[in-house]
């Protein structure tokens, strides 16, 4: 976990793409996309059906490592509105144990806005927590400090003749986009015009490694 400051709040960035907010004991994650593989399977594209359990195990590890008592999921937690119903029994049980043991809030996203049962926890469209707006997709017209997901940012570099891609946070003084946490999620180039449009000029890609945060200036 690597410490950094955003909008006068001390946060910790994890290599998994999660954020830990020590003062609140809160973990924030974006774009879990539970049951994405089964959604594709229903449409004839067969993928290994383990994505939800792998994502859930990673989330359990983050909660255990941080001791978090509060969880915020920043949208697209399920790949579609029926995702919770398709979760395997083991995954449902483990997820309900987590939502029952913490103050768990699901923020709606474009993939799961109509979902009713999310295996426990509260559901909101967005929230304001200690002055930070938590929502799924960044709003370029909102000047308030904001945490969001949606874009699955990845930084693509060429290093020693090899193409390298790493999930990253995208940050400006008032915008912070989290990478996708889910095991079966692609990524949008952090320099993509849609990400630049969402956060504005002067953005950086942040990649936590071991004990430090790598910062890469993004082109406007």
Would you give an account of this structure?
By secondary structure, the chain is of the alpha/beta class. The protein is 21% helix and 33% strand. The protein is built from five helices and 17 strands. The strands form three sheets. It has a seven-stranded mixed beta sheet, covered by helices on one side. Strands 8-9-10-14-13-16-17 form a seven-stranded mixed beta sheet, with no helix packed on it. Strand 2 and strand 3 (19-21) form a beta hairpin. The two termini are 29 Å apart. The model has no long low-confidence stretch (mean pLDDT 91).
Strand percent estimate: 25-35%
Low-confidence stretches: none
Which strands sit side by side, in order, in the main sheet?
1-2-3-4-5-6-7
Report how far the terminal alpha carbons are from each other: 29 Å
Q: Give the class from helix and strand content and strand pairing.
A: alpha/beta
Molecular shape: globular
Roughly what percent helix?
10-25%
Rounded to an integer in angstroms, the radius of gyration calculated over CA atoms is 17 Å
How many strands?
17
Question: What's the order of the H and E elements?
Answer: EEEEHHEHHEEEEEEEEEEHEE
Tally of DSSP helical segments: 5
Mean pLDDT level: 91
Largest sheet: 7 strands, mixed
């Amino acid at each position: 976990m690597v410490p950094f400051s955003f909008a006068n709040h001390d946060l910790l960035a994890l290599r998994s793409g999660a954020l830990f907010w020590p003062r609140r004991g809160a973990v924030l994650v974006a774009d879990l996309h539970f049951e994405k593989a089964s959604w594709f399977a229903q449409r004839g594209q067969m993928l290994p059906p383990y994505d939800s359990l792998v994502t859930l195990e990673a989330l359990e590890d983050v909660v255990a490592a941080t001791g978090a008592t509060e969880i915020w999921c920043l949208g697209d937690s399920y790949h579609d509105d029926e995702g919770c119903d398709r979760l395997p029994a083991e995954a449902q049980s483990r997820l309900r144990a987590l939502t029952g043991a913490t103050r768990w809030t699901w923020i709606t996203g474009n993939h799961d806005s109509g979902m009713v049962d999310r295996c426990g926890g509260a559901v909101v469209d967005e929230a304001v927590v200690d002055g930070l707006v938590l929502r799924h997709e960044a709003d370029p017209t909102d000047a308030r400090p904001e945490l969001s997901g949606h874009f699955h940012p990845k930084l693509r570099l060429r290093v020693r003749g090899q193409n390298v891609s790493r999930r990253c946070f995208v940050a400006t003084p008032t915008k912070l986009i989290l990478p996708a946490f889910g095991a079966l999620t692609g990524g949008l180039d952090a320099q993509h015009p849609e990400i630049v449009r969402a956060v504005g000029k002067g953005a950086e890609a942040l990649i936590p490694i071991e004990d430090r945060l790598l910062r890469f200036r993004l082109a406007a």
